[in-house]
Every structure is written in structure tokens, then in C-alpha cells.
Design brief:
heterotrimer; A alpha/beta (369); B alpha/beta (260); C alpha/beta (185); A: 369 residues; alpha/beta; Rossmann fold; 14 helices; 15 strands; globular; B: 260 residues; 7-stranded mixed β-sheet
Chain lengths: 369, 260, 185
């Protein structure tokens, strides 16, 4: 198939269209607005639903309504907008209806800026809204990978009646890369035994997140958890690079992960036996694979565009077996590969102890710059 | 003593198919039951029970889905018009309605309501205005009238510090997307009959794709108001109707031309 | 193999377009490529720059600290990025907007009046294309024919009539660079 040069945000929109999205609701926010703009042109010409809503709370509740019909529905936003949606996300999780959420992350906290960041990792992987629930979170590192994951995201959302989040940052949204677009999938409205659609020829359906009877609510929570267990069992995704003979490894997701690929190649050119582990499903996190990796290498460098949010998951997997070094850039700063190479060289010289606090040591290095 | 009606021709009143047989949780004397019944009767008469999808709010009518016999979803506080938008856009041939109180619709859901109307969403809103937050214990609502005592305006609503009530029907009538905006009352049988007719026209507006429709229903909260059910009906008439006049605030020419 | 190009200037100078032109051409000859922009907060007239990475394998970082090929279209960009050019690399300077010499001696550079050359060709807005031609003359990452083919394949129909002038602008930039470039010491 022919490759075409696509801007990230527009490629994601087109990939969603081809994956059969039936309705998109959104609100403008940089750096994801091109996604909304693209949908505003594309969906009406296909006879599908598009609404530019009055606010992100309205957006997520439009998504909630459409999701209750069993339609393939999505929205996209960037960090502050995603925060505004947390109430609705919790309701959607509590009602057990499927949706796809794209977060094109930007620098924060607060209004922050419009530069690429990975500061929302903990918010989405650990819940975000109130109550116990577990969104599926996929963190691709290129436009092609994002495009390839769009149909997967819808399939997972529907299979597990779950929120599936595509977690990228502004750089992937704003950059251009050659992309092979998948073929257009037909829109099929499946009939679900839980969805509302009008009670034609059947008993009426009621969808709600209210369970005033406490033991019932506990049962529902356990049902949600049970589905999450299946996700953990079946939906682990990651990519490994140059790990066969690696003596040390970098772990990074999304853009930090792809920047690390350049660092790994540069370090290998210097004779350093280093590989890269790039989680793609960051929720469920590939704990087991990271644990196995920590049994093969002598040390790890975790790189992120945040203050060590994924690091906590790596530490859970590694359980102080080997030293971990952390390196992060904050507030919208995109690191250069050279910075990772420096960290790697320093790590090999001074690996430290497995029980060291990587965030504390990194913070001291940042403050000493 | 229960009485069985032997001859069907003697039956003058029964539970409409649009209501489930679940006993309601509403306080005795509350007009929610009346409003529910009117919606149920209209949906049944229009043969819409299997095409309608209701959206319940947060507030006293949070459990509307237990009583009105259609597919239902339950929204977050104030977000019912957004949820209705999502459903209607995906299922345009279904009839989508919300049932919301004044706290839900006028306070936290003001933006969703106004924008759904501005977009001309083909949805119907049944808006219960009883000038108070019922479920949470009788606090001041955005429709509480000047001087009215509530549990969060114990000396009466002081307009100097707590502002004025919002007249929703008048406000929404200014929007081009609205097709049918009226206010009715539930305080006596004649008013109830008029309210039912308005609900009918509102659903007809939607069925004919004529834009946003809303029926504001002045309702009682005898518990929250601290009155007997009967006294609260006359209190509504004496105190609410002067502030919230009953009437048609917008009937688009297309809606006016509907033959019902 | 991997090469990176960095282009900087004011918004409205065609910085982003020049980068996309390189990107399309690289894609069409089968390369991996990334194009990433960086904007100031203004929609027009602020600073704008973009980085293009062209490679034979999966591209890691879309940004590089020291790109080997740099075009600067205005003085603030020269002041900011002269030091970033990789030693041994190439720097193209738009003399129409920059009245100073390049200080580095470890890079090959050329200073050419892109705006005036573009005007001679027929449209001042092609200054970016002139600069692109100059860059490719000094660092043959892509051929002028690759660029021409890409313009032909990807320019919207309504702009196709500008193709001959764009090709002319490329060539004029390349010729000027070949004649006037100052080689790295």
C-alpha cells in the first residue's frame, strides 16, 4: 500500500474513521485541535455524527450517551481537557460502556503550555476519576503505530466494555511521518444485550452507574475488576530493541521511548551493550516482562517526560533487584538523545545500589545543573 | 377494601403502560408522580414506548428510570442534555428525552441545557421547577424566589447576596435552535391537562424534527417547603406563578402548524 | 544512515513548507522521515522552525541537538542556531534578511539573497525554495529531481502551475551555492 505523509492528529482521525468510528464529540484544545477539525470535515461527509460541544464535561457526557447505544464512539483532547472529563470517565467506567479516548498530552500542571509532555501517565493509568476502575492505556511512539492501534483500541474497548485511551504527546500529534493507512472498515452497529436503543421487541434496558445497595455495588466493582484481570492476562503489548546481548537497558514509553532508541544506537556505536524496552500497553503494564528483563541486565535507565510516573511501575516489577536510574524532563521539555547517552555513561560508571531512590538522585542532579 | 372492576367498560382510570408497577420513592403529595404519569401517557398515546430513550438526572428524579417504562440511562448531575445529544446523534430515529429538576438543569447543567437548545438538538426536556433542592434536603435552588426560606437561605433568599431566580423558559425562548418552549403548572386538574397537552406537543416537535423542545412544569415540594400537600398546591399558585408565569414562550411557526 | 535538516525563520517565510518538501521527497524515494514543527505562540510573524530526519531505518528522536544541515531565514535564527550546526555540516543563510557573516569556520556555509533570487524567478514567496536548492547543492541528501518529483506529486492542483518556477528557484539556489559557498576548514 502507498505511504502518505500525514500529520499525527489528522492521521489518528482518519484511522479512527477507517476503524468505523460512528460518533466523535470534541472541544478545541492545542495541541490536538487538528483532530477535531479533521473530524468536523470527514464525519459529516460520511453521514456519521460530529459535535463540537460547549465544554469538555459536555463532550464526555455526549460520548457517554452515545457509548450507551453500543456505537463506536470517541473523543480526543489534551491534558487540561482530559482533567475536565474525569467525572464523565468515572461514570462511563461505572456504567461499563466502551469508548476510545485520545490524550495528546501537553506541559502542565495547570494551564501549563502547549509543548509535548508525558505528565498525565499516572492520571490515566491509575484511574483519574473517582472510584475503582481501570482504563486500558496504549502509548504508541510513532504516527504509524498510533494509526495501527486505533482499530485495536475500539476492539478492546468493546471487548472489555472499557475505556481505552491512546496516550500520546503533542509531538506525535504535531509531527508528520509517512503512514500506510488501513482499509476502510464498514460501520457495523452490533446489537448488544446491554445497550439502549429503544425497547423494540425486547425488555427495556436501563444503564446506570448507581448501585445504592452496597453489597451489589461491591459485586459490580468485582465484575469490573474481573474484566480487568482478563485484560491484564491478554492485552500486554511492548517492543524490544537490541536487547539480545544487552547488559543494561533503557525503559521508556511513547516519545521518550523513541528518543531512547536514538540514544541506544548512539551508545552502541560507542561500544555500550544497551537495549531498549518500550511498553506500548502502559495499562496493563508489562510487569512480568520487565521483571524478566531485570534478571538479565545489570542496571536500568528509565526515561520519561515527567517526574518518574512510569518509574513506579518499573520499580514494582524490579523490586530492587538491580539499580535503576531515572532521567526525566518536565513541563514540556523534549529531551535530546544525547542527554540519555550521558545518563547511560554515568550509570555504567556509578550504577549505585538497588535500594537507591532514583527520583531523589535525579532531582539532585537537575538542581545541580 | 380492594375493588375489582368486573366490567371493562366501567374502567375509567388505570396505570398506563408507560409506567412500571414499581411503587415510587417520592414523598406523598409530590407532583413528580403526576409529571411521570403525564410523560408515560403521552409516550403510550404516541406509540413511542419502544422508541423512546429517557435520561434520568441527579436529584429527586434520579430514579425516574425505575418508573417510566422505556429504555433509560442515568446521567451525571446536570449533564443529561449532553448525554441526550450523544444518544440522539447516534440514533436519530429514536425519541430521546431528559427529565430534570431545577438544580440539575438550571444550576450545574445550565451550559449543557442552553447549548443543547442553541444547537437545536432534537430532544425533549421535561423540566421540573419546584424552586428548591429536594433530594439534598431543601437548599436554595437557582429558581428559589426572593425571600423564600430554604435550608441554605434560612432568613429567606436575600437578593443582595444570593441573587435572583433564573427564568429558564424565558431564557431559552431567545435561542434560534429552540422549537417549543413553554411553562405549565401541576397545581390543579385543569393545569395538569394543559401540561399534558404541552408534553404531547413537545414530543411531536421532536418526532417532526422541529428542534429543541422543553416543558417547564411548576411543581411542589411539600416536604422541602414544610407544607401539607394540599397547602403546597395553593402555595405554588399564589407564590410561584407570579414569578414564573405560565405560558408559551416560544412556539416556532412549524410547531404551531402541527396538527395534533 | 540518518541525516537531519533544521530550518528556522519567521512565520510566513515558508519554513514549514520547505521542511515538508524535503519530507515528501524523502518518503517518495523510500526513506523513513519525520517532520516536526516548533512554533512561537503567534499564528503569524513569530519564530518558526522545523526539524526533518531522513533515515533508512525506524527513526528514533525526531529532534537532534546538532543537525548537520541548517537553513536560517532571518537574523534571530542565525544568532540562535549557528552554534548548533554539527561540525563539518552545512549552513545556508538568507542574506536578504541577515546582514552579517557566519563566524564558524568548521562548517561549510553560503549566504545568498533568497528573497531577491526568488523575486527574479517570479515570486518572492519562493525564497524558501531557493534556500532548499542551496542546501542540497552543498549536502546532496536528496537530488533536485527528487524535490521536483515530490512537488509534482503532492502540490495541490491549484498550485501545479507554479511547479516550473519552483524548479527554477531550486536550481538558482543550487547554482549560487556552488559558486559562492565557503568550505569548512
Amino acid at each position: 500500500m502507498k505511504r502518505e505523509l500525514w500529520k499525527g492528529n489528522e492521521a489518528i482521525a482518519e484511522a479512527a474513521v477507517r476503524a468505523g468510528v460512528e460518533a466523535y464529540f470534541g472541544y478545541p484544545i492545542t495541541p490536538q485541535s487538528e483532530l477535531l477539525e479533521y473530524m468536523s470535515r470527514r464525519l459529516p461527509e460520511l453521514g456519521r455524527a460530529f459535535v463540537q460541544a460547549e465544554s469538555e464535561p459536555a463532550v464526555i457526557n455526549m460520548v457517554y450517551g452515545a457509548a450507551c447505544t453500543g456505537a463506536r464512539v470517541m473523543t480526543s483532547s489534551s491534558s487540561p481537557g482530559i482533567s475536565l472529563m474525569q467525572e464523565g470517565l468515572s461514570y462511563i467506567a461505572g456504567t461499563e460502556v466502551p469508548m476510545v479516548l485520545v490524550n495528546v498530552m501537553r506541559g502542565g500542571p495547570g494551564l501549563g503550555n502547549i509543548a509535548p509532555s508525558q505528565g498525565d501517565y499516572s492520571q490515566i493509568t491509575k484511574g483519574g476519576g473517582h472510584g475503582d476502575y481501570f482504563p486500558i492505556v496504549l502509548a504508541p511512539a510513532s504516527i504509524q503505530e498510533t494509526v495501527d492501534l486505533m482499530p485495536v483500541a475500539f476492539d478492546l474497548a468493546h471487548k472489555y466494555r472499557s475505556i481505552c485511551c491512546i496516550l500520546i504527546d503533542g509531538s506525535i500529534g504535531q509531527m508528520m511521518e509517512p503512514v500506510k493507512m488501513p482499509d476502510m472498515m464498514p460501520v457495523e452497529r452490533k446489537v448488544y444485550d446491554w445497550a439502549v436503543s429503544g425497547a423494540i421487541g425486547r425488555e427495556r434496558h436501563v444503564l446506570s452507574s448507581i448501585y445504592l445497595d452496597v453489597p451489589t455495588e461491591e459485586k459490580i466493582n468485582l465484575r469490573i475488576l474481573g474484566r480487568w484481570k482478563e485484560v491484564q492476562e491478554n492485552e500486554i503489548r511492548y517492543r524490544e530493541y537490541y536487547l539480545e546481548d544487552a547488559e543494561t537497558a533503557i525503559i521508556g514509553f511513547g516519545t521518550a521511548g523513541r528518543i531512547a532508541l536514538s540514544a541506544v544506537r548512539a551508545a552502541r556505536a560507542m561500544g555500550i551493550k544497551v537495549g531498549l524496552f518500550r511498553p506500548i500497553s502502559v495499562n496493563p503494564f508489562p510487569y512480568k516482562r520487565v521483571e524478566e528483563l531485570s534478571e538479565r541486565v545489570k542496571s536500568l535507565l528509565v526515561v520519561e517526560m515527567n517526574a518518574g510516573q512510569m518509574l513506579r511501575d518499573v520499580q514494582t516489577a524490579v523490586r530492587q533487584r538491580i539499580p535503576i536510574r531515572f532521567y526525566g524532563r518536565l513541563g514540556g521539555v523534549m529531551p535530546f538523545p544525547d542527554e540519555f547517552v550521558n545518563e547511560l555513561q554515568d550509570l555504567l560508571k556509578n550504577p549505585g545500589k538497588p535500594e537507591d531512590d532514583p527520583v531523589d538522585l535525579w532531582y539532585r542532579r537537575m538542581m545541580a545543573r | 377494601m380492594a375493588t375489582t372492576i368486573v366490567n371493562p367498560e366501567n374502567l375509567v382510570y388505570s396505570r398506563p403502560k408507560g409506567l412500571t408497577d414499581m411503587p415510587s420513592h417520592y414523598c406523598p403529595g409530590c407532583t413528580h408522580g403526576t409529571a411521570h404519569r403525564l410523560v408515560a401517557e403521552v409516550l403510550e398515546e404516541m406509540n413511542l414506548l419502544d422508541k423512546a430513550i429517557g435520561i434520568a438526572p441527579v436529584g429527586c428524579s434520579v430514579f425516574a428510570y425505575n418508573y417510566i417504562n422505556t429504555d433509560f440511562v442515568q446521567a451525571a448531575h446536570g449533564r443529561a442534555p449532553a448525554m441526550a445529544t450523544g444518544i440522539k446523534r447516534v440514533l436519530p430515529d429514536r425519541v430521546v428525552f431528559t427529565y430534570q429538576g431545577d438544580g440539575d438543569l438550571v444550576s450545574i447543567g445550565m451550559a449543557e441545557t442552553v447549548h443543547a437548545a442553541a444547537r437545536g438538538e432534537n430532544i425533549t426536556i421535561i423540566f421540573i421547577n419546584n424552586a428548591i433542592y429536594g433530594m439534598t434536603g431543601g437548599q436554595m435552588a437557582p429558581t428559589t424566589m426572593p425571600g423564600m426560606k430554604t435550608s441554605s437561605s434560612v432568613n429567606g433568599r436575600d437578593v443582595e447576596t444570593q441573587g435572583y431566580p433564573i427564568r429558564m423558559a424565558e431564557l431559552l425562548a431567545t435561542l434560534d435552535g429552540a422549537g417549543y418552549v413553554v411553562r405549565r403548572s401541576l397545581h390543579d386538574p385543569a393545569s395538569i391537562r394543559k401540561a399534558k397537552k404541552a408534553i404531547r406537543i413537545a414530543f411531536e416537535t421532536q418526532v417532526h424534527g422541529l428542534g429543541f423542545s422543553i416543558v417547564e412544569l411548576l411543581s411542589t415540594c411539600n416536604t422541602g417547603w414544610g407544607l401539607t400537600p394540599v397547602d403546597s398546591l395553593s402555595w405554588l399558585e399564589e407564590h410561584m406563578i407570579p414569578v414564573f408565569p405560565v405560558g408559551d414562550y416560544k412556539v416556532s411557526p412549524e410547531v404551531a402548524a402541527l396538527k395534533i | 544512515m540518518q541525516t537531519e535538516i533544521f530550518i528556522a525563520g519567521f512565520g510566513g517565510q515558508g519554513v514549514m513548507f520547505a521542511g515538508q518538501m524535503f519530507s515528501y521527497a524523502a518518503m517518495d524515494i523510500g526513506k523513513e522521515v519525520t517532520w516536526i514543527p516548533s512554533y512561537g505562540p503567534e499564528m503569524r510573524g513569530g519564530t518558526a522552525n522545523c526539524t526533518i530526519v531522513i533515515a533508512d531505518e525506524e527513526i528514533g528522536s525526531p529532534l537532534v541537538l546538532n543537525p548537520p544541515a541548517v537553513i536560517v531565514m532571518n537574523l534571530p535564527s542565525l544568532d540562535k542556531y549557528e552554534s548548533a550546526v554539527k561540525p563539518g555540516g552545512v549552513l545556508v543563510v538568507n542574506a536578504s534578511m541577515i546582514d552579517r557573516e557566519v563566524k564558524r569556520t568548521d562548517i561549510t556555509w553560503v549566504s545568498l539573497p533568497c528573497n531577491e533570487i526568488a523575486e527574479e524567478v517570479g515570486d518572492r514567496r519562493m525564497a524558501n525554495v531557493v534556500a532548499a536548492g542551496a542546501l542540497l547543492a552543498l549536502m546532496p541528501i536528496l537530488t533536485l529531481e527528487d524535490i521536483e518529483a515530490a512537488l509534482k506529486a503532492h502540490m495541490p492542483k491549484r498550485h501545479q502551475h507554479l511547479l516550473p518556477k519552483n524548479v527554477e528557484a531550486l536550481k538558482r539556489g543550487a547554482e549560487y551555492a556552488k559558486e559562492h559557498a565557503i568550505k569548512a576548514k
